[in-house]
Amino acid sequence: MDILVDDLTRRLAQRIRLERDQRGWSLADLAKQADVSKATISKIERAEVSPTAAVLVRLASAFDLTFAGLMLRVEGSNERLARAGKQPIWRDPETGYLRRQVFSSPVHPVELVRVELPPKQSVTLPASSYAHIRQLVWVLSGSLTITEGGARHELASGDCLGFGPPAETTFANETNAACTYVVALARS
Amino acid sequence: MDILVDDLTRRLAQRIRLERDQRGWSLADLAKQADVSKATISKIERAEVSPTAAVLVRLASAFDLTFAGLMLRVEGSNERLARAGKQPIWRDPETGYLRRQVFSSPVHPVELVRVELPPKQSVTLPASSYAHIRQLVWVLSGSLTITEGGARHELASGDCLGFGPPAETTFANETNAACTYVVALARS
DNA sequence: TCCATCTGTCCAATATAATGGAATTTTCCG
DNA sequence: CGGAAAATTCCATTATATTGGACAGATGGA
Fold this sequence. Notes:
2 copies of one chain form a homodimer. By secondary structure, the first copy, chain A, is α+β, with helices and mostly antiparallel strands. Chain A has 2 domains: 3-74, 434 Repressor (Amino-terminal Domain), CATH 1.10.260; 84-187, Jelly Rolls (Sandwich). The first copy, chain A, is 29% helix and 33% strand. The first copy, chain A, is built from 5 helices and 11 strands, in the order αααααβββββββββββ. In chain A, a hairpin with a 6-residue loop joins strand 2 (89-91) and strand 3. Chain A starts with a helix and ends with a strand. Strand 9 of chain A pairs antiparallel with strand 1 of chain B. Chain A binds a DNA duplex through helix 3.
């Protein structure tokens, strides 16, 4: 049994179903939005196939998400208690950007992420990553510059910013010390 | 021509090739690491196929990435800013319980609160406090015992618990050191 | 220069994904 | 409770992904 693939297939099934239900869409509704057949979506939601990237990007687009945004939601957990030692960590080798998925669950609307951004580094996320979510960013240490759409914000340690409607957003650490911040978001 | 899919296929091709080259791997090397055939990887890198999720998760794993992490590389946020110095703080004189309202806004559904619970102290909130909200609790330091309805949870530093339906909840610090935790909540 | 090895692409076969429409199940309303 | 409508699943077919091994070209060392 290939646990890596089976786990992914199951999580994808749950997430596609959850996103569809949250929008009050039928299979036919989503099929039309995504230009993918009802039968395919039904098989995906019942974990009967491993869909191609072409199908997934269309589904993500229908949900107003990027492919990466969809997969970030897929890779959360159903458990209510997320132990520190089991929280997924991802590091970008190029920038040193370190991201800890503190809590994410398809059955809970709140999500928490802890990020460490090294000196002089930045990350940019497209507006589509923010569709149907509302987000806060709280700086634990260091300084963070957030450019959201046209608005620029300088956040010092302890400051917290609430985001508005979806817009392309850049997080930049323009100082010589690492910046640590928390992202709290709610899915609508 | 489906631009969304074509663009994704081309970006995937470039990224898989780049990640492989950066590691100095041949097609055979990556095929072995990922348990995917050389021919498949060759076709992916030449944008000749749209790979399945099963294949992509194996490739991501071979590169020591999550699927979402891989896709992030393939692809590229009212007073809305709450300054640390202006965040309301409330201390209970009897228990020493210290609560900082990091972020709260009528026009933003997410709320963040930082709590410091002294040793051997506890707070109990009725179920009605949780109506129409969904909440997470993330322990920054110390240990926290949460009794939610009939369920009891022991949280160590770094652990995070997602709450279920409204129930009377007790937060208790049964240790001899202060406990600091963050509450993230979303209003529905 | 030649040969062995490595690397990437091609090929035919197999496995699986995706589909349109039919069939079945579920839901809702009178 | 029954029937209509909506939603989901099934089916047979087509399209495409994946594969092991063959093949062609590149590379490096004797």
